Amino acid sequence: MNTLFDKIWDFHVVTKVEDGPTQLYIDRLYCHEVTSPQAFAGMRERGITCFRPEKIYCMPDHNTPTHDQDKPIEDLVSKTQVDT
Known about the structure:
- The chain is an alpha+beta fold.
- The chain contains three helices and four strands, in the order αβββαβα.
- It has one domain.
- Helix content is about 30%, strand content about 20%.
- The strands form two sheets. Strands 1-2 form a two-stranded antiparallel sheet. A two-stranded parallel sheet has the order 3-4.
- The longest helix is centred in the middle third of the chain and has 11 residues.
- The radius of gyration is 18 Å and the shape is elongated.
């Protein structure tokens, strides 16, 4: 009997390499502000666009203050990433 995980996995399989990895179709992309900018910059440099940009969800989580949330973010890079 397949688990829920197995069913979801099987539904997203694009190709299986014998004795190797499985290529999956990922229908959602969740980004955060720390490493995603480098990935998007690399895509811009290579002239690559996003396949389905409406399926990309971004959220500021690493630069959002956990203390003194009522005060402005002091670090300019962090503030820019959260604001944009």
